[in-house]
Every structure is written in C-alpha cells, then in structure tokens.
Amino acid sequence: MPAQKSQVLAIIGQGYVGLPLAMAAVDAGWTVIGIDNFEAKVSQINSGSSPVEDISDQQLQAAIAKGAYKATTDFSTVSQAAVITICVPTPLDEKREPDLELLRSATKGIAPFVSNETLVVSESTSYPGTLRDVIIPIVNDLKPKESQNLYFASAPERVNPGDPVWNQKNTPRLIGAIDADSKIKALEFYESICDAAVSVSTPEVAEAAKLLENTFRLVNIALINEFTQLCSTNNINVHEVIDAASSKPYGFMPFRPGVGVGGHCIPVDPLYLTWWARQSGVQANFVESADSINQMMPKFVAERALTLVEKKTGSPRVLILGVAYKPGVADVRETPATELRNYLKSKGATVAWHDPLVSKWEGSTSVDLDWDCDVAILATKQPGMDLRALTDRAVKILDCTNSLGNLEGVTAL
Ligand SMILES: NC(=O)c1ccc[n+]([C@@H]2O[C@H](COP(=O)([O-])OP(=O)(O)OC[C@H]3O[C@@H](n4cnc5c(N)ncnc54)[C@H](O)[C@@H]3O)[C@@H](O)[C@H]2O)c1
User: Fold this and answer.
1) Is the full-model pTM beyond 0.70?
2) Does the annotation count 265 as an active-site position?
C-alpha cells in the first residue's frame, strides 16, 4: 500500500468493531490495514464478502477496489501505520472473570513492529488500568529500540451493531490519553473520523465510563425483568405499565423486558466491573444481583411458555423464534436463547428454532415456520420475520418482544 505513514491506520481485529471502524476511516481518507489472526475471515473479507451486517459487500468492495483497505494476518504491516487501534474481543473466562488473553496476544503481535511516532489506541472494553498496566508494558518491552516516541490512549468503542441511527461517525468518542502529547494525537485521529471526540483526564476514566455505560443498561434491564415477573404474577401487562410511566416527562427512562441479555457487551462488561470492584476490595452487590436476575429470565420465560401448552401428555413441542441476541444481527454470542432452549429441554420439551438471519446455531439448523408446535416463543423479532404462518393456524405465541400487540393467541411476556 503506497500511502504516507501519516495517513495509514492499522486495526487489529476485523469484527463488529474493527471492520466498521475501518470503513469509517476509509471514508475519512485513511488507508487502512485490517489485521486479524483468523485466516478464513481475512480471505472472506479480501474477497469482498462482509462478515458483519453493518458493512455491505458493496462498501467493502469499493474500499478494496480503490486501494484504501486490505485485510491481512501479517502483523509486521503495522510498521507502516501512524495509528494502531486494538479491537479484539475481551471475553470472560470459565470463572466468569476478565480474560485478556486475546488482548495480550494482539499487543504482543504488534509490539515488535511499532514504528517511531505511532499512536496505539485500545478500543476493546476492559477494566480501568488495562491500557496502563497491560498494554503499555507489553509494547514497551517488545518494541524496536529505535521506536522511542510512542503515544497511547484508550478510546472505548460504543458501536451498537444494527443501529440505523447511531454509528461510529456520529457517536461521540471518549478519549483518555496517557499524557498531553498522546491526547493531541488521539484527538487529531478521532476528530478525523468522528463528529465529536470527548477528552477525559486519564485512560482509566474512559475505561471506567465504558463499564458504567453498559452496566447502566444491565441493571435497568434487570429491574424491568424483575418487575415483569411481579406484574405477570398479578396479571398486569408490564408494557402498559412501562408506557404509562413513560408519560412522565422527566426522571424515567423506559427499558423493556426480554428473555435475558446477550451479545458481547451487556452480559460481559458488568462482570469486568464486578471483578474490578473485588480487586479494589469493594463488593458490587447491586450489579451482581442484576446479573443473576437476568440469568434467571430464560427459566421464567420457559415456564411461562409451558403454561400455555394445552395438551397435558407427551413432550411439548416448543418453537423459539429468533435466537440472535437482538434484532437485525446474526450474532448469537451469549444469547439467552441458549439457556431458554436448555431449560425447555430439561423440562422434557422438544425444541426447534427459527431465525432468518442465523442458519446454524449450536449444532442445529433453523426450521421453517410450518414446524408443528404447541407453543412458540418470540425471543427476538428479526426484521422481515413474517409470523403469519403461525398466527394463521392459531399457534399460541409468548411474545417477549412487545411487537405482536393483541393478536389472537398471543400472550405478552
Ligand atoms: N460488538 C459490539 O457491539 C461492541 C460494541 C462496543 C465495544 N465492543 C468491544 O470491542 C471489542 C471487540 O469486539 P467485537 O464485537 O468487534 O469482536 P468480534 O469477535 O466481532 O471481532 C474481533 C476480531 O478479532 C480477531 N482476533 C481475536 N484475537 C486476535 C488477535 N490476537 N490478533 C488479531 N485478531 C484477533 C477475531 O478473529 C475477530 O475477527 C471487545 O472488547 C468488545 O467488548 C464490542
């Protein structure tokens, strides 16, 4: 790629965060090297087929055709870049604690090739101190001797896949840099691709703000999920209550109940917060409690659905509608549909699922809507999901999405 280093950006991780960032940067005039250690994904991307819903094949192909974007597995290419952003997953380990292995290995991958005067930014979500205590020491340990002037910042990604309104360009970006020069470089970079960059005093403030944002969602969803169980026991429609409360013009924000929380962020990031709290000698009881309420929701939903089954003998046949964790995406990471299906099966049900955006999930395939069932659970209402095949034959549906209204045979969660 014959471009000036000053306009070359390297992005580590070409997923839901990295690829849209790459396209936003291409639009802003950057030449982007997209690095990923998953060879098959790199080949797919270079063939012009986008692995994420928010980026169309056409957009990707145009960026490749004008020589402004290329994916690679070769970490040494970061030596051409003025800015390197790290966008790799930060999941939980088997103890449900932060697992920074991918972040560490990505950092080790770039460090030997970081050239002088490069800005290194972490966009991955993690606990406060990750940039300062994990990333910077690795880079400083492994960087070439001649690479003296390096700049570091944390700029947690806020992208909301499938959102038609908010994207990388128009969502203000938080930036916490390690020193004054890093702040100037990071602001310069993000102001070139985003409408607004918000500078905070330290990387730890930016990292903590990201955990607060997603924990705010988790606890509010847990509150409404718990409240839903209370309303359900008392035969009150929770959505009508939420709509009623929403007529208050201040001090209330509506959240809707559902099968639980899913995806790579909301079920995961708050556990980075609870872990961080424990390391600090503080118990984040409120957040832990919210996490357990959300984890119980699939069981509540399953039991509710089974009460709608009329036949009292034999194995109830249950169809789950929508297994992606939210509408508009094919992402099944941490989807609460897993627990829903497991619990239904543990109760002796025969379970199938249908999702127009997901063809394979946990070793099984999506069935057609004419699958014979006693009850269907609408877990995620995918765009274009036409449920007439079920409503026309009066299948009972438990609607966990508040999208079917008062149709005959439909019960709201
Ligand atoms: N998905 C979201 O909605 C979202 C929103 C905001 C923030 N985040 C955060 O952004 C980060 C990335 O999430 P994502 O959803 O884009 O993940 P993703 O799984 O969609 O993509 C990550 C990519 O990184 C690659 N990868 C993993 N380890 C690597 C390594 N060592 N070197 C090079 N490539 C590597 C994977 O192959 C994958 O293609 C996470 O910290 C996440 O919490 C995600």
Assistant:
1) yes
2) yes
